[in-house]
Structure formats: C-alpha cells, structure tokens
Amino acid sequence: MAQKPSIPKGTRDFSPAEVVKRNYIMDTIKDCFTTYGFQPIETPSFENSDTLMGKYGDEGDRLIFKILNSGDFLRKVDDALYSEKDSGKLTPKISEKALRYDLTVPFARYVVQHQNEIDFPFKRYQIQPVWRADRPQKGRFREFFQCDADVVGSKSLWQEVEFVELYDAVFSKLNLEGVTIKMNNRKILSGIAEVIGESDKLIDFTVALDKLDKIGEDGVKKEMREKGITETAIEKLQPLFQVSGTASEKLALLKDLLSSSEIGMQGVQEVEFIVSTISEIGLQTAMLEIDVTLARGLNYYTGAIFEVAAPEQVKMGSIGGGGRYDDLTGIFGLKNISGVGISFGLDRIYLVLEELGLFPETVSANTKVLFINFGEEEAFYAMKAVSKLRKEGITAELYPDATKMGKQMGYADKRNIPYTVLAGGDEMQAETFTLKHMKSGKQDAVSFTELRAKLK
Amino acid sequence: MAQKPSIPKGTRDFSPAEVVKRNYIMDTIKDCFTTYGFQPIETPSFENSDTLMGKYGDEGDRLIFKILNSGDFLRKVDDALYSEKDSGKLTPKISEKALRYDLTVPFARYVVQHQNEIDFPFKRYQIQPVWRADRPQKGRFREFFQCDADVVGSKSLWQEVEFVELYDAVFSKLNLEGVTIKMNNRKILSGIAEVIGESDKLIDFTVALDKLDKIGEDGVKKEMREKGITETAIEKLQPLFQVSGTASEKLALLKDLLSSSEIGMQGVQEVEFIVSTISEIGLQTAMLEIDVTLARGLNYYTGAIFEVAAPEQVKMGSIGGGGRYDDLTGIFGLKNISGVGISFGLDRIYLVLEELGLFPETVSANTKVLFINFGEEEAFYAMKAVSKLRKEGITAELYPDATKMGKQMGYADKRNIPYTVLAGGDEMQAETFTLKHMKSGKQDAVSFTELRAKLK
Prior knowledge:
2 copies of one chain form a homodimer.
Chain A: H1 16-35, E1 39-40, E2 46-48, H2 49-52, H3 57-63, E3 66-67, H4 79-83, H5 87-94, E4 97-99, H6 104-113, E5 122-131, E6 143-152, H7 158-173, E7 180-185, H8 186-195, H9 202-209, H10 212-226, H11 231-241, H12 247-258, H13 262-281, E8 287-290, E9 304-309, E10 318-325, E11 339-344, H14 346-355, E12 369-371, H15 376-391, E13 396-398, H16 405-414, E14 419-422, H17 425-430, E15 433-437, E16 443-446, H18 448-455
Parallel strand pairs in A: 1-5, 7-8, 12-13, 12-14
Antiparallel strand pairs in A: 2-4, 3-4, 5-6, 6-11, 7-9, 9-10, 10-11, 14-15, 15-16
C-alpha cells in the first residue's frame, strides 16, 4: 500500500551536495587529528543500557533512546510489576540496550575494556553519530555527528597547548579566520568561590556567572542573590565583572583576587603556562582569550575549559568546546586516568561556512563529462572511452538511454556537468570525439589522447 | 559504582588499526563510485516504523530493532490491550521508530520523498551502518556497514555493463585479483520454469536450484520432487546441470532450451549483450561468468542478478551482489521507476584482504616521529618544531611528560613510531635535533630543515 513517505522529526536526509560538504569538514578535521597523532576508534551505535544510564543526570537519562528487546519481550516481565503500568519501572525490564548519547562515555568504556591493549598516553579521535530524544528545534537534531579528540593517561599541560593549536589548525585549514578560543580553568572558579566564602555554592555561582553574556552583570547578581549568595560575597566578585584588557592584565587581576586560594592560584598558573606558550609558538588565524565567566559542564571538568566562538559577524555561538577531566574512567572502575579533550560542532561549522561562502568550489560530487547516447553502436564507442577515462580517475558517465539530445543536454545542465561529448557516426569513422564546453558552448573535435588531456 | 564494561553481543569496537583498514576499503569503494558518477546520500539511522515494517517479510520484521517511545510511553496505551500482555500487539503502541535494516528501503523512501529535487536517472551511493537482531555468529553481526550503489530511472542495459566494470574497478584497485562476477537473469529462470511447465512453482524451483553448490545435482532433484515438480519437468532440466564451457557455449545451450519462451529468450539476449560488451571492453582482473543456478532474492529482482565470489583459494563465499529490480519505489507510491544496483560486503572483503595479506603497509594510523620530553624548556624547544612539522602535514608528537627516557622510547617502540627526536641542552644551544631511526638505532644531528626533509 502506498504511504506518503517521511522521516522521524529531528532527523535529516542528506542530499549529495550536503554529504560532500559535510565530508569536506570531517575530512579536514580528520587530517588535522591524524597530523597531531590522534588515532581513530569506533564504538557500537548502541551500548548496554547500564553503560549509559546514570552518566548524564536525570535529564540525560530521559533523553537516551532505548531499544526494545527483541522477540517476546513481555514474557519475562513479572505480572505484579506489569500491572502497575508504570513506564519508568517497565523500561529496564523490556529494554537492555540504548543508542549512544555522546562519544565520551563510550570512550571511557572502551579505555577500561581495552586497557591492556592500549599504550598510554592514548590519543584517540572518534567521529560518529549520537542520538538524543531532545525536542527538535533550529540547529538541534535527534541524530547528529560528534567529532571528538581526547588524550587519556597524562596530566601534562602540553596537551592543553596542543589542543589550542589543533583548534587553530582545523579552522585555519577550513579558511574560517577569526575564531576565538575562549579558555578558563575550573580551579580558578573554585578559587573564586573560595575567596568569596561560598565554596559550598560553587555550582550555583558558576551557573549564574556563565549567563553573563545573556543576562548581563545585574542579572547575574540577581540570580546569585536568589541562590543565597551573600552581598559581601557578591561585592568581592566586583573585579571579575571588570576583567578586560590583555591576557597579562587579566592574569594580574586574577593573581591579586586569588592570592589567598591555593587551588585558585594553581588554576592561574595553568592558564598562564598555556597562554605564554601559545603566544611564543603563535597561532595561524585563531585568537586565544581568557574568559573567567566560562563555566561549561562544571560537574565534569576539573582543569582547563575551552569553548570556541565563531567569528563575530556570524551569530552562531559555540562551534567547539572541551576541557580537562581527572576521573573519566572511574565510573567503569579504572581510577586516576586523567584526560583532556575537545570536540567540534559539525552542524554549526557547516552553517558558518555556508553563511560566509567558505566551501571551496571544488567541493562537489560532480561528474566532469557526460557522453551523449546516440544509439547502441555509438554508445559502445562512447563506453569504451568512458571506461578508459575512469581508469585515469576522470569522473565520466554515459547517458544510459538514447533519448532526445535535448533531454540528455538538459540532464548535463541540471547536474552542472561542465563537459559533454558528442560522438556519432562521423566521429566513429574519424576516431575522434566532439567535446563541448557547456558554459561557453564551444565545441572541438579531438582525439582520445587530447580528450583525456583536456579533462585531466 | 564500578561496572565491568562490555558491549552488546553482535556489536564490535574497532581499534585504530582496524578503523584505518576499514577506511582504506571504504575510501577505495567511494573513489570508484565517484569516478563512475555516483553521488553520495545519507539517510537517518532510524525511520518511522511503517517505512520499514512489512518490507522484508515476517522474518525481517522480527529482526528489525525497534526504538521505545520517549517519556511515559504507556500513557496512551489502551487498558484492554495492555492487559493482554501481548508483545506483538503492544509493540506498535509503544514504538514508532526503528533502526534501518538495509539501505535499499530507505533509498526507495528517499527517492519518492525527494522526487522533485532529483534529476533522473539518479546514480546514488550510500555507505552507512545497518542493524539486524539476528543471532550473532562468525562473520554475522548485529551492526554492520552496507556499501551500495544504485541507478534508478532507466532500464538501459548499459548500467548492468557499468556495474560489472565497477566491480572489476574496485577489486582491481584493492589488488584483489581473481574474483568471479557471477551473473544470471531472473527472466532466464522464469523462462526455464515456463518451458518445463512449472511456472507456478518458480520460487520452489529456483530455491532448490540455488543450492546446487551445497547439495549437488541429486540433492537439487530430490528437493524439486519434494516440492511437487514433476519427473518430466526435472528431465527437461537435465541440460542445465551440464551447463559448462565458455559463455558462448552456455548461451547456445540456453537459446536451445528456451527457444519457446519469450521471457526466457529476452533474458538470454540481455545476458548476451552484457557478456559481449564486457568482452570487448575488457576487465582488469575480474572474471565474468554466466551462472544459471544463481537465484538470490528472487521476489525482489526482475532482470540481471549478480554475485561476486572471492578468489577460490579463500573460502569466503559471496563478497558482493546485486541486480535489477523493476518496481522498488512502488511501495511508496511512485510506480515504474526501474533500478539496478550492487553492494559490497565490507566485513568479508576485510577478511579476504587480511587473509591474503593485501592491505598496503602504508595503511596505518601511525605517527612518523615522537619528540622525547626532557623537561619544560626542552619540551618547549621540541614543541615549536613539532608545531612546524605538523603545518607541513608531517604526523609528529611530543611525549607529554618528562618521564624516564626508557619509558618514552618504549612508547615509541610499542606504537611502531619509526623515528624519535632527542633534543636536550646541547641541541638547543646548537639549534639542532638528534634524529634517531628506531629500527637501525642510527642517530644524526640535523638542522630543522634537514629534519623536515628527512621526515617528508
């Protein structure tokens, strides 16, 4: 029976033009990952539910797509439990697998499971889709790719330096100039909470601070008051709102503010090391900026935090982020494996490149030449040439049917194929090919050798 | 709480070495697809259930992974239905989405949904994972990649010719010589059923014939008898079991056998056209063979059928297959769109290349040079060089920690990194680098320019 076909909300079909552009971005990222010594791994699309559940908070648990057990999945469900008709209680009884929600937890699972085959420090990258049952909206999908690079097994700050360079390398290679790599350190945030006497409100404090961009200084202070942070504490924070100027000026201010906090000063030193090293080595097109209001994923990160902002003329928000975490694999029983990693926001980078017209013209899935089909004998003559051109790596096609020439030319036109070859009885006799440049309409009779040379 | 991590049965983690080899195969296939004018599309991992259900038979429906609806999925389930506790009846009420089972049905859905954006004939390729709740066994997985190329919108036999050449191109590029492309035609099978007077038993007849390899001539005849095919009919079949010799000899025998069947003769002519054209154009390393016992997926194909056998010395069975289907998109309401396509069996091709040692040595995710870390200042000196080498596309790493040299050298060894650079105080003063070739142990003091040249 005929159905009007559609796809689930929040998912997408990608046309040839889109796939080719997406691959251009992913291939650029992969090339840079490889040059920096990262190695690819891949993990299954679904994991055992207990690998994923409880790792992303209650909200995360809700957003994980669960896979129904195969076969008679109700057979083993206890009657008493079944009769409660409670979705939450029934779920673990009828579903044992779930689609991955991100690449980080599967990576942690991978490291623990394969720890005896891995040479640490382990630099891995992973580019695969993830799934979230989020409410779809502009730029937010239920299936999307994540592009992650992480190093586990070393606490060295050279890795943070390397990740800043890696961001710069990727965006420079994509010709996306003027991105800002914002950096902060979780230890600085802890230090600030400490010196204002609100260590126990660290999370409330940073969640509020993180909103500075959106709600402004007064809004942040209001939210802090609502969360019970004292006036005295907020007053002590005042210098933070004025942090500006060069990296040295910001570092000086932070040193002054955090002089009494050991952890705070440690954070400042880490930031200082990264900033000074990067300023010596130099970046190609990106800027590195200290941003003390950057908080992202606080319950997760323990050291450096990164977030990449698109060039200012594009209103896009973050196109990448990451940071240092000290105990990722602990959830799977392997303690004291420090890690640091970054990720690239493929969908947003795509939109930015599209908006700024930065996809190279050569990025297309296009056929170079279409041979027009004049009938069986002519097609045979053409096919032999097509076959030889393909062996040289030239993208060539024979129109499959001997239909009207207008239709065949129209097909070449619509598909933006730059050349057509017309070869009928005359050409066959002379062993030539009439090569037509579609844009100019110019036609030349050429030998196969000339044809090949022109199309190379 | 620590869990001993594992992955669902039938799924796999891929290590860096495996990912790189898999990518080598997929990139080779993609390159050939592109050269032949095929364009990539991608479809979502899950489809609406009604897009997939009922398209693969009852067995297929059972093997499709269903995704549990999000949230309180039982809320809208009717109490009476719920109280039946019937898995089969409950499933459509609590699951609206399912993981794709193959790439063909999603492709048909794509063509119908996007018919107004597509220029026909549409040559598309698609390389994505599919999922089947099959019982896992050696070489059979619950998640695996399919690599498909199809053309829809033309009945031209030039496309069959092209697909034979495409198989040859891919396997030649993979250096896998001696594959056999077996070809048959559904019309020949129909013709045979007709001339032996058993048209209504076409499926039983071909299912039995398809087993010739496994159960031999007597076995096939026995099965035919069991299915009620008459002795007279089986007698008429006798010449089929003796089909051998060259393509011309096989064609002559078929013409003789099928002379009274219009559809049978049409099939013979189609096969003859493809065979004669291919023999004129020539294949690089593959052989094309007529195999009248080839039946695969009879309910689906309507013209040419292909199956590719690995070289005889490898016991592997089919590493690819495909054929012509006349009404793929009809299930979604778009009639009379003929298509033909082939697919490559990635996992089996991987095993064949591994067994024959055909993966090129250059196929590795390897770092070219590791800079040894002697401390902060030395690391800074090294990092500047690493940074410059990477900009030249040379895969370079700095060991992140200034640990014992033995440990760092051991890391380079285990990871098969061919070169290390030792740069301490002396080298820094002389602005040189000591480059060590790990295999020979040979060391040279070189300038940066020399270093770069040696590593390029």
